[in-house]
Structure formats: C-alpha cells, structure tokens
## 1
Amino acid sequence: MFVKPGESIVLKCNTTADNSTDFWLYLTKKNSPHETLTEGVDVNNHYKTRIQITGNTRNGEYHLKILNFTRQDEGIYRCITDREIMPVDVYLQMKGVFLRSLVFDIINIIKCM
C-alpha cells in the first residue's frame, strides 16, 4: 500500500473473538525484530503522539491510525489477536519516494560528468 508523506492512514483489524487481546506490531524490514505498537487499546509510550487505536473495540475493531506518515514509518504492520489464527500483514511504502530518489541520483551523476 502506498502512502503520501504527511498523510494519515488507518489499517483495519477486526476480530470476532470476545475479550481478545489485539496487538499491532511493526516490522521495519523482513526478518527484523519487531516492535509492539499497541496491546489492546494501550499504545506504546514511544508512539503515543504518532498512532491511535480507532474503531469500536467492543465490536472487535482495533484499527491502527498512523498520523503524519513519514519515510521512517515504511515497513510491515501486523495485527495479531490472541484467538485468531492468521495475522493481518500490511506493507506500507511512501508514495513516489523511489522515483524521486532515482531522479536525484541520475541528476547528480550527470553533474559529475
């Protein structure tokens, strides 16, 4: 999924289990250690100004809202519930970053010639 810089985005996580504990995890790169962003509605102190849990948690909605998306927010986000078997993975990438970087590199190469 592509996200524009500065945009806010909501990642949806629904569970059918009553009284389940939902976790949002963030994995910066494949096979890297993860960070726990939320446990239920409790947000990790490090991220309190950047993320929120939205949705009706009584109905099993634990949506992750990321505010003011930056390049540092790129990566895999995973929703895991204690009663569901399959986690929900979403890969977020900043829209247009690769192309702008490539154009900038080409311009610098041309200047050096």
Note: Residues 98-113 have pLDDT under 50 and may be disordered.
## 2
Amino acid sequence: MSLPKFERPENGPTASTVRKRERLTPNMLFQFVTLILLYTIF
C-alpha cells in the first residue's frame, strides 16, 4: 500500500510500473465482466 507513494515521481521505470498498474485494474474488471456474461449464458 505504501509502494504507490514511493512510485510518485514520473521519471524512469517507476512511471512505467504505475502505468502497468493502472492498466491492470481495467483488465481485471473486463475479465470479471466476461465471467459474469459466461455465467448468464450458461
């Protein structure tokens, strides 16, 4: 939980890690939606 505070500076590999984290959340949401759709179909 304290890692994001350390990754605040937007310069170097830290910025890329933050971007990856931001991209991870929507991906998980998409997977959740797909799972719900599959459950509704079956």
Note: DSSP finds two helices and no strands in the chain.
## 3
Amino acid sequence: MILSKILRSYDFPTREKQLDLTLKFLNLLLLSNFMIATLLNPSLSDALQWNMEESMLIDDTLAIEIRPAVENLWVNYSSPKSSGIRVAVFSNETRDMYRFSLVYVMPRTEGTYNIVVKFNSKGAWNCTVGVYTRKSEFYKKPPIMTSSGPYIPLSGPFGVTAKGNQTAGYEINIVLQVEGEDSSGWFFIKFPTPVNMALFAIISFAVAYFNAFFFLDAYFKNKVEGLSKIRLALLVLMLLASIYFLYQIHVFMVGE
C-alpha cells in the first residue's frame, strides 16, 4: 500500500522529457569524450604552424629536412600547372646514424607554389629548408658542397625544443616563388666566376695553341705541294671539335 501510494504521488517524466534528457546526456558524453581525446592526443586539435616565403630557380630542388623522423608525414601543394611540380616524400631516412624525414620539391615551371607539410611528432624536433642548385649566384649566399651538389640554406633550423611523451600536430606552410633564368635580348651569355674565367682562358689558350700548330703546318704545306681535301676536312673537324670542347667547359663552369 505504501509503495503504491509513493509511486502514484511521484511525477514521472513524460516521453518528451525523457527524450530531451537522453539527448542532453549524449551531447555531454560526446563533448567530454572529445575533450579527453584532445588532451590525450593534441594532434586532434589545431596544428602549430610555421609560415614562410621563399624564392628559387626553376629546376632546382627544394629540400625540407626534419630531425628526428616524424610520424604521419603528409604533403599537399598547388602549382600553376598540373604537371609543373614533382614531390618526393621520405618519412624515415638514416644518415650518419641519425633518423630524419625528408621532402623534395622540384618545380618545373615558373610561378607561385603553395607547399603544405603536415606531420605529428612526440617531443623535440627541428627543421631546415634549403635548395640544391647549380646556380648559387642567384641566391646570393655561399653554397655548402654536399654529395648531392651545392646546397643553399634558406630557413632554419626551427622547430620545438620542449620534450614530452604526447603526440602533437605541426604544419609548415611555404609560399614558393619560382623564377626562370635571367636573360635579355636575343643573345645571352652567362660568364663564369673570376676563378673559373681565368681557368677557362688558360684552357682556351692551350686549345688555340694546339690548333695553330696544325693550321700553320697546313698553310706552309699548301704553299709547297697543295692541300688535299681529306686533310682540309680533318682540319675543319678538328676546329669544330675544339669549339665544342670549349663550349662544354663553359657550360660546366657556369653550371648550366
């Protein structure tokens, strides 16, 4: 009797109230779970960003190196043309006992590129941005000679120095201006550096001296007994070969 009176006197919530309470409870549960997940894994929240602007020459290679190796390395980009860029991603490389992640960007056309690099990492890391080039004069910085060719550092090192066990998300945004080689008029010659110019002059003098010996010999023989067509053809071939040889030396010295 007493129990039945209590049950009759208690105001049970209606079906609408029950549904409303259930929805509020579910929303609260989802919000609490998301907050807990964000605290346990900061990479789910907004990534810490670095923004920079760089310039480079067409056909050079931009290198983004992150030490130590990071997780979930991901690269996105936009280019003036769909086929105007090549990107290579290496998540876990080893050099001199050090593990690192590496991104190569190789633009093939002039214009503005937007490069986005995202990754997760536990603890400290540092990043350097540079370019491998054959025309270091463009960057107005002394190159560092490496096994992959002349290297010009552009930015860095930058990154995170605090250490911890939590995974965090990071993002590097690069606005990349890619330029072509300077040339004016219909005829353009790029000269080597002063040291290379002196070396080129010595080589040119040696080639000219070598050719002069044969041409003078042919001149005097032509005065005495005439010059055969075969000998004349050989002299012309030797002259063309010398010009081609000097051209290749010039290309090598200016880095074209």
Note: The CA atoms of residues 178 and 242 lie 36 Å apart.
## 4
Amino acid sequence: MSTSLRVLILEDSESDALLVLRELSRGGYEPTWKRVETPDAMNSLLQLETWDLIISDYSMPHFNALEALKLLSENELDLPFIVVSGTIGEDVAVEAMRAGAHDYIMKDNLTRLAPAIGRELREAKVRRQRKRAERKIQQQNEFMTNVLESLTHPFCVINVNDYTIEMANSAASAGRSVRGMRCYHLLHGADRPCHETPCPIADVRKTRRAVVLEHVGHNGDGKSIYYEVHGYPILDKEGNVIQVIKHWRDVTERKQAEEALRESEERYRLHFENVADVIYTTDSEFHITSVSPSVVSLLGYTPGEIIGRSIAELNIISPDYIERAYGNTIRVLAGEHSGPTEYEFIAKDGTKRFGEVTGAPLFKDGKVIAVISVARDTTRHRQLEAQLRQAQKLEAVGQLAGGVAHDFNNLLTVILGRVQLALMGLTANSPMYENLSEIQAAGERAADLTRQLLTFSRKQVMQPKNMNLNDTLSGMKKLLRRLIREDIELQIELAADLQNVTMDPGQMEQVIVNLVVNARDAMPEGGRIVIETSNVELDENYAREHAGVKQGNYVLLAVTDTGHGISKEIQARIFEPFFTTKPEGKGTGLGLSTVYGIVKQHGGNVWVYSEEGSGSTFKVYLPAMLEKEEPESQSPERVQMPQGKETILLVEDESSVRTLAAKVLSGLGYTIREAKNGRNAIDLLQNDAAHDLLITDIVMPEMSGIKLAEDYNHRFPNGKILFISGYADRAVHRDGMLKAGAEMLQKPFTPQKLAQKVREVLDN
C-alpha cells in the first residue's frame, strides 16, 4: 500500500519535478505536492500548510537551495531537506549539507531518491521524538528542582505510636496548621486508624524498612485518583521505629499510561497471533526466537516445533535460497533493512512454498540484538504468473499458426477446386482419375489440419447456436463407444436440469471426441472413462486463483480416465499445437490444442488435473445461458450442385481463389462481376445495376469485407451477402463470431460446397 507524503518541491523545471514525482510513486509513496520557484512562494506555503519533506533543485533563476535552507530555519521548521540537482559539484554539495541539507542526489541517479526519503523521514521522526523527550526531561528536571526547593509535594513526619503529625509541608497541610492532628483524620477523614486500607505507618513499624504502597482515592467528580505512597522509617538508637516519613504523589496518569500500554500490548499480541503473514524473529546464530501462529498455514509447523531451532536444523529453506537468506540476515544484523526478497520454503510435508520476506533490525541499547522478519505467502501469486505466461505463450503460438493456416487455406481452395473441376470432366476409369483423387484426398487432409490450426488460434469462424450438452452427449453415445476399445468402460453421468450454452455444435462434438480419444490413448491396458456434466458457479476466489477466468455461472464438462496420469512437465505443454507424447506417426499433436482453441473462442476455460499414476481429469467450463431456451435445430445439408441465373458480385483479393470461384459459378449459369478489393467493388456498385448476391472475403487491403457489406446493404437493402475467409480477424469480427444472420463459407471450399452455399443464401 502506498505511503501518503506531503512534498514541497523547489524546482523551476516542471518536467524535472514530474521525474521526481514519478520516482516517488515507484518508491511506494503517494505524494501530495506543490511546486514553487521563488522565496515568497516558499515562505507562504511554509506558513499556510504542513509538509513532510522538501525536495529542492540547487540553483534556480530566482532562488537557490542555500536561500531555501535559510528560509526554512527562519520559520523554525525541522523538515527533511533533500537537494536534487544535475550540476552540483562535491564542494557545493558539502556546502549545502553544512547549511542544513540532509542529502543530495544527482538527477541522473534518481533511484536513490526513494530510499533517501525513507531514511530521512525516519531520522526526522527520531529527531521529533528526541526533542519531545528532551522537553519532557527538562520539564521533569524543573519540577524536581521546585520540589526540592519548595517541598511542594505532600510530605509529613508521623509519630508511629499515636499517628499524630509532627511535621508537614504546605502541599500536605493546604495552608492549615496540622501539627498534632491524626494522619488518618487529615488524609482520609477517618476517626480511627486505617486497618482496612494498607497503611505505610503500620507496615514500616512492623518491617522497619521503607515501603511503597498504592492508594485509590476519589476527586469531587467521583473519578478515581491513584496515589503512590512512600514510607521511610526513622529509628532511635535501639533501632526501634519512632517516626515515619510519609510522602505521596498522584500517579493517575502513570496508571492510565500503563493501562494504555497493556491494551497496546494486547492489540499487538492479537495482531501477532492472527495476522495472515508470518512474523518471526531470528538471533545472531540464526535461531528462531519467536514466530506467529500463522506459520502453520505456510509451513505446517506449529510455533513450538520451530522456536529455539536454527534455520539449518529445520531445513525450511530450499538449498538454492539458503545463501540468500543467510546473507540478508547478516546484513540486517549489521543494521541494514532487507527489502522484499523471495524465498522457496520447504513445508513440513515436503511441499515447496514461496514467500516474500522483509527484514528489519531489533535494537536494544543502540545495538542490534535480533532480526524481525515478515514472510508473505506468494505461492498462489507465482502459480497465477505461470498460468499467465502459459496463456501468453499459447496466444503467440496461436497467432503464428493462424497466419500460416490462413495462407494455406487460400492455396488449398485453388488446389481442391481445380482438382474437383478436373475430376468432373473425367470418368472413373480414366488414367488421371486415380491420381487426381489421391491429390484431392491429400488436400482434404491438409484442409482438416489447417482447420485445427485455426481452431487453436481462435480464428476459426464459428456459427454458434443455443444447445444443451446433455442432448449432444446423448446423441453421441454410439459414436463414442465405437471410438474406444472393448477393454474400456464408458460411463456418462448427465446432470439434471443442465443449463444451455451457446456453442458451435460441430465444434462442441469435436471437443468431446478429442477428449475421449485422448482418454482412450492414456489407457493402453484398458480402464474406465467417465464423462460428467453439471452446473457450477465460479466465485471470486476461484477467478483469483485461475488466470483469465471470470466469475459467474458455467456448464462443466469433465472427462476422467483411469490411466497413468500426466507429469507436471507434460501438463505445462499439453495444449501446445504439435506437442505429443505418442510415437512418430501416431498423432498430430493437434487434438488437445484444438480443444483449447474451441473452448477459449467460446469464452470458456479448460484445465487439466492429474497426478502421475492416478489418472487425469480434463474440465471444460463454458459460460451458461441464464435464460434457458430450446436448442436450435440444424437444417439438413444439400448434396447436389444447384444452378442459377442471378447476378453475383465476387470480391476476393487472392486472384487464384477469385478466378476459381468465378469459373465455377459462371459455369452454373450465374452472371459474375469480379472485384479484387473493396474499393474496386464500390466502383462496380456505382456503375452497375442491382446485384442479387455479394460474395466477399473478410480480410482485404484498403477495405474489409465487413465495411463493404455495410455499403452494399445501404445500396441494396434486399441484397444477399455471403462472407468467405480463411478466418475472421478480430479487428472486424469480435471474438471471431459472425453477427446474427450473417452467412459464412469457410476456406478451403470445394466447387460443390460453393454452389450449395450460394443457392442456400439466395433461396433464403
């Protein structure tokens, strides 16, 4: 938490002042500041406002640091004064220090500023405390002098036999003649000796020694007044007590201070025992002399198991960090402070924990006697950092994979399209038919790989629908049983009243298949796969511990296997594309990366939980729809190549793709107008009559397909639009999702798919 600081800055350069303020913020301060550059302005602010610190340039056009120090002295203010200059020499710096400056710092070394401020604020506090103490001592000395000179404190000499007062000062007598009066009558208003109240007279006569007693009286308002009563014996020649010197003083304030101290110590004890951070002290032999109970949560040890033992004996700090720990302790024992330093601790059960430790010296009689340290558990923080780094790495790999896949889709569109056109002109027994069919099959496999890469990179275009995972799993039971072997048991447990999700149905099925295949391959000797669904609510605590997760309602899909488990090292890379533990030729390494991409693109999260030898569980969290709607049905896919006579504007910046699409559609009877980019298309729209359909790529130079579609809709409100793309870039497609009602054809596409989609859009 930042420390508030009221700073008066003497500086003619605003930019230099801002540099100083930035360094203060970096050093953990939250400054309230004003900048002046003249003596009058400084004098006015010193008189009108209260300041913690003054930071001054040495030389300004109308002012300098020496004049400022003189002005500070004239105002009788003791404030830390630090000179910050870019040109100050050693002689000038010494002169400034002699004039009263507390430190000087070069502007090219401002990193010294925050530590210097911390030191000077502490020293200023010490100076204030010392002055208060000196004033108090002075007052006490004056008081004692007056006491000794005038005997103003209550003082009397009492005969022990009859309790008569033989001598008393004015403070005891209040100006009356009290000689011969009984002390119990004068002091307590009683008519007989104080047998029920501790009496110094009786005690001194009995013990023949000086005694100190406490007496509680009451003032006129009924409030308690505490007295400290002293009794001193006066002996005769035989050693018998004949008189008692009695004096007393009001110790009400001391009693109140003692009570305040007791309450303060109790508050400290409660804080020490209940604070979440671990507070501990270490002596010069590295033995732990005290530790707060919170050590149990960090290390699993009770205070009794730690106190009195050395750090080396306990083995609570990892070997890689022990030298750092000893070094920091030695520096603090030398009087320095140890800033936040991270250590790796070893808990009682052997697990590794991370903590950030700050140390400070404990003084007694001006000497360091121990080190007090505060250790804050940073294990969760490190885990979140690791999750963030993993997510960033996957994001970077995804960007690369998405770009490569997009370019390959354009190439595959031309290859597959040309092959299909060639096959349409051949018979099955043609010499080239088999070769072209093999090319087509290889191209389709390549297209499948690029689709998986686009899915991982979250640039696969989705057509999400309202759906229920229970319905999807119920419809996939037969498929899933065919995917696994006979020695694997499949168990599906579906939650009642499961909430719906918004998902691309085909991609959801791919997630389920990939997870089941992964579970199957993890159990070469057989086992059991359990698929579960449930409604869950991820709270703020869960979101804090899992990077990228937003709190809210989710639908959980969990796939558990009884295989050999996954090591921590493999878990760290398990969602990377092309990473696989299978033998060469047995897997592409895209199965789980595809799952990751699909889930992330739909706003969800996927986590793996596994221990070696104990199986694995993959948990997929998908945002739940709070208002349940009936799942949407899917229309059957057309299987023929329909024709038409409509006019189509075809816009594609990749000439080979544009040429192929134009050839296919014109061959089916359509009238085609071609444009190589959005600007070219706008020119055609201005000169031509109405078009029945606009087919446009999404990502193009000069103007995106989205912008072109908006212009087209404005000109032809009844016109139809079909988007084509290798992926929908986030710059024009939020989260990679099409707007409601938009039609999309994913590259690479075949002539048949193009013809079917064009007819479908026109007819709808």
Note: The chain has five domains: 3-128, 151-255, 275-377, 465-623, 647-763.
